[in-house]
Automatic annotation (TrEMBL):
CDD domains: MnmA_TRMU-like. InterPro entries: MnmA-like, MnmA-like_C, MnmA-like_central, MnmA-like_central_sf, Rossmann-like_a/b/a_fold. Belongs to the MnmA/TRMU family. This is tRNA-specific 2-thiouridylase MnmA.
Length: 363
């Protein structure tokens, strides 16, 4: 196959590209330039897709002996991922930009461009497992958790959609530990073998999400109120708060019982942030919109027992799941604490990803 290897400049994507070469594919490396600021630099292990990352990706491609290109996808990234991030926070929701990047950039813009140029698949360094299953109607592509459970990224990949699964490769899906990836990179002479992992939001390299939101959205002072409606503090913008938040509230009046208080509601219409006891964060039902169902052999309209995960590395909770009027309803066996609208809820059956939806309501 002709394979387009997305090379971020990190060790995972470099080893994934190397494995694609070993598998006999005709591989071309491409680095996605996502930042609108060409002078942006990585800060320690924060951020990704920086100038330094582009240099590291080029050196890795040279070592592997494959062609290498830089594609400017910054407009796509700004118009989809960053715009969605700002729009969701403006609406009092908490988005996951990595999910949106996979949906709109890595497995939409990149794949679409690659297919139009005659490539058969996109290869990335994500930790996830793709399996081809024979059934009566042919081959079914399934997305599963990676062998490396602590690094598993199937949660942020579920949004891809079943139509994409036949055109992607995840060569690291069977690697049990990150240490083994680094050892393999060193053995191949790849200079990124000891490079630290990137984390946090890539377009907020200093990690100051609240500062980024205030810079882009401005200030809009308002009140912080407790469960009785009493004013207990002030804020500079309700959009900078998220459900379950405890730190950075700056409350001027302590709770009567002396216990910590958490953000329980962000009301954009009244510009108020509501706080309350930790018990107020418990939810037993999740209703998700924009459902992406990856399992054509399973009818989501029929209630099924499954596991639900709502954070990238959160634990899975048993639930009864069903699709009602294009919305995914998930009734949890036990309460879940601190879930905000805008986050992703992913449905699993064992290691297999069945579907995904964006949290719209909780109860």
């Amino acid at each position: 196959m002709r394979v387009l290897a997305a090379m971020s400049g990190g060790v995972d994507s470099a080893v994934a590209a190397a494995r694609a070469v070993d598998a006999g594919h005709d591989v071309v490396g491409v680095h996605m330039a996502l930042s609108k600021s060409r002078a942006e630099h990585r800060s320690g292990s924060r951020g990704c897709c920086s100038v330094e990352d582009g240099y590291d990706a080029r050196r890795a491609a040279d070592k592997l002996g494959i062609p290498y290109y830089v594609w400017d996808l910054s407009d796509d990234f700004e118009d989809t991922v960053v715009a969605d991030f700002l729009s969701e926070y403006s609406a009092g929701r908490t988005p996951n930009p990595c999910v949106r990047c996979n949906e709109h950039v890595k497995f939409a813009a990149l794949l679409e461009r690659g297919l139009s140029m005659g490539f058969d698949a996109v290869c990335t360094g994500h930790y996830a497992d793709l399996r081809d299953v024979e059934d009566g109607s042919g081959v079914r592509h399934e997305l599963h958790r990676a062998a490396n459970h602590p690094k598993d990224q199937s949660y942020v990949l579920a949004v891809m959609g079943k139509q994409v699964l036949g055109n992607v490769l995840f060569p690291l899906g069977d690697v049990p530990t990150k240490d083994e990836v680094r050892i393999e990179a060193a053995a191949r002479g790849l200079g990124v073998s000891l490079k630290p992992d990137s984390y946090d939001i890539c377009f907020i390299a200093d990690g100051d999400t609240r500062g980024f939101l205030r810079q882009r959205l401005g200030e809009n002072p308002g009140e912080i109120v407790d469960e009785s409606g009493a004013v207990v503090g002030e804020h500079l913008g309700a959009f900078a708060y998220t459900i379950g938040q405890r730190r950075g509230l700056g409350l001027g009046i302590p709770a009567k019982d002396g216990l910590p208080r958490f953000v329980t509601k962000v009301d954009i219409e009244t510009n108020r942030v509501h706080v309350g006891p930790v018990e107020a964060l418990d939810v037993r039902r999740i209703i998700g919109a924009d459902t992406v169902w990856l399992a054509p052999d399973i009818d989501p309209a029929e209630p099924l027992r499954a596991g639900v995960q709502v954070r990238a590395h959160g634990r899975e909770i048993a639930a009864t799941v069903r699709l009602e009027d294009d919305r995914l309803v998930m009734d949890l066996d036990e309460p879940l604490r601190g879930l905000a609208a805008g986050q992703s809820a992913v449905v699993y059956s064992g290691s297999r990803v069945l579907g995904q939806a964006t949290v719209e309501e909780t109860a």
